[in-house]
Amino acid sequence: MDPAHITRDDLPRWYVMRDLKRPNAKVRAWQALADKGFDVFTPTRWQVNEVAGRRERREVPYVPDLLFVRSTRAALDPEVEATATLQYRFVRGAAQYTALTVREAEMQRFMMAARATSTPQYFLPDELTPSMLGRLVRIVGGPLDGITGRLLSVRGLRRRKLLVELPGLITAAVEVAPEFIQLV
Questions:
Q1: What is the Cα–Cα distance from 136 to 23, expressed in whole angstroms?
Q2: pLDDT digits over 13-37, tens only?
Q3: 8 A C-beta contact, residue 110 and residue 166
Q4: What is the C-alpha separation between 86 and 28, in angstroms, rounded?
Q5: Which pLDDT score is estimated for 11?
Q6: pLDDT at residue 171 in the model
Q7: Percent of the chain residues past pLDDT 90, beyond the cut
Q8: Can you state the percent helix, strand and coil of the chain, rounding each to 5?
Q9: Residue 122 to residues 141, 165, 169: CA-CA distances in angstroms?
Q10: Between the CA of residue 150 and those of 98, 109, 121, 168, 178, what are the distances in Å?
Q11: Cα separation, 117 vs 13, whole angstroms
Q12: Strand 133-139 relative to strand 148-152: parallel, antiparallel, unpaired?
């Protein structure tokens, strides 16, 4: 394809999607899209459920209807049309229906932070108060090298936690060693 004819929809982007399937569905949208070769990320947590009389530990989405899919709009549209419970999230207040996307650098930073620990803590936008936002820092060294964010400021918190945010969507808090913290 001629580079002059490439549009914004021809480039792969991180689309913010909704999965409206029931929480107990056998195959969730993020699993089905990953099986079809799409690059999918959903913030998850561990949950213990009782199945057939025995306790089972299972990884479940933190926000049941939130997932991120990296693809072109042309490749993703047929999947959305074929799956009644899969929808794009749209930008609020936009004059026309504009699919909500996340910039590549922000998504990579968020995924790196979420995958750096087995137990990240997630917050929705309305759960974080201004008093919980600490100093702006940069991580130097370790698995989170180069990431900037704010420290979580909560009374009685003994360990340092870095907040990495996808604005308006979700925030991950991950533990970071004090020797890697550099004030910005």
A1: 36
A2: 999 999 998 877 888 888 899 999 9
A3: yes
A4: 10
A5: 86
A6: 95
A7: 57
A8: 25, 40, 40
A9: 23, 10, 11
A10: 30, 14, 14, 16, 13
A11: 25
A12: antiparallel
What's the half-sphere exposure (Cβ side, CA atoms, 13 Å) at 172? Answer: 28
Between the alpha carbon of residue 48 and those of residues 25, 55, 56, 77, 120, the distances in Å are 16, 6, 6, 35, 17
Place of tokens 């970071």: 176
Give Cα 179 distance to the centre of its chain: 27
Buried-state track 139-177, b at ≥16 Cβ within 10 A, e below 16: beeeebeebebbbbeeeeeeebbbbbbbeebbbbbbebe
Distance separating alpha carbons of residues 105 and 121, to the nearest angstrom: 21
pLDDT(42) > 80:
yes
Task: Taking residues 39-45, report their average pLDDT.
Answer: 93
pLDDT on residue 9: 60
Question: Is the pLDDT at 140 greater than 60, yes or no?
Answer: yes
Q: Are 120 and 41 in contact (CB under 8 A)?
A: no
Place of tokens 């922000």: 106
Residue at token pair 């999947």? 79
